[in-house]
Amino acid sequence: MRVLLAIHHPLSQELGAPGVTLALGRALQAQGCTVDYYGYGDAFPGEQHHTALHNLRFPWKLSAHLARVARKYDVLDVTTGDAWPWARAGRPGASRRHALVTRSHGLEHTVSEQLRADAREGKARLSWKYPLYNGGFRLWEVAQSLRLADRSVLLNDADATYARERLCIPASKLRLIPHGLGEAFHGLPLPAPLPDGPLRLATVGTFIQRKGREDVIAAVGRLHALGVSFTLTLYGTGTSEPEVRAGFPTSVQAWLRVVPHYAHATLPGLLAQEEVLLFPSHAEGYGMALVEAMASGLVPVSTPVGVAPSVVHPGRTGSLVPVGDVDAMVAAVRELAADPLRRYALRRAAQLEVQGLTWADIAARTRGLYEEVLRERTVGSK
């Protein structure tokens, strides 16, 4: 089976969705598939810096490419919003027996609704340009992709419900297939109890409003005022340490550490001395940082977004708190700080919970989906 994986990003193992795409491709290759890729490096050769304009142009670049090469592939697996011009044109260049799958790394519609809700509550600021593209035309493009594809792969129940109920996509065309854990996160030793000292808190991921930046800042300020002893390390913020520190109260500055960037494979080692993950994201397609931190032995305090409801079981593998509820986050952290034995038991349970998320299994499920579509199209072409 020959597969093309296309994504509107530069292909890099160090980036979220592109890293997942490369991992899926390797796992499919291990199962005998031939896999090619198409990303920003192919659509815009030689260009190192990308803007929303590149995202706007990418579907047309991809469509021209597909018209030339689609006949070479059995499966075209393309991120949502990107294959619609080619599909609406009648899939030029494709063989009669092929599968068009569109893949969401987080449905833009659900993210947009949460962002607009945050803006109404004064928790986020939207540019006047937002309704023109990201909050407007891009949502139309994504909906077109879902309607025109043979199947759509989504990452969580909330996205699937939205696609069915709000975008009227038939349930038969939707599949929930999660991400897998990379090899660096499998077979890690169970975390050893850390010596007595401050509670070791961590965040993993870009430090932006949608990821709960203001909630983290408010929570640690409150924890400090309540006399909870802690350190907080922020991994992969994507912004410089001075810029990150500037948002925090001076009272907690001494307990902060900022790691703006890291090599993905080094994350388990970085997290080896941490205990609790703060994951107060307002919207997620999946949340790889959450499952990777759990695999590294951190107990999560998370909002119920993306994959969290499937792996964070209150009282057993971590805590779930409502989006934007700083009081609940503070209460959950205080409980963990007060009971080291329970905290360690939850760390062990969190690590074990995610060990079944292997790329081999995800690739097998994905290949099964491809074969299902190809069988249908074989019957339909007779």
CATH superfamily assignment of the largest domain? Glycogen Phosphorylase B
- Per the CATH scheme, the topology name of the largest domain is Rossmann fold
Helix-strand makeup class: alpha/beta
Level-2 CATH architecture of the largest domain: 3-Layer(aba) Sandwich
Annotation, overall tally of beta strands: 12
User: How many structural domains?
Assistant: 2
The whole-number mean of residue pLDDT values reads 93
Q: What best-fitting shape do the alpha-carbon axes yield?
A: globular
Please state how the strands of the largest beta sheet are arranged side by side. 2-1-3-4-5-6
CATH class group of the largest domain:
Alpha Beta
Strand count, sense and closure of the main sheet?
6 strands, parallel
Helix percentage range: 40-55%
The unreliable regions are none
Can you count the helices?
A: 15
The portion of residues forming beta strands comes to 5-15%
Provide the succession of SSEs. EHEHHEHEHHEHEEHEHEHEHEHEHHH
Over all CA atoms, what is the radius of gyration? 22 Å
How far the N terminus sits from the C terminus, by CA atoms, comes to: 21 Å
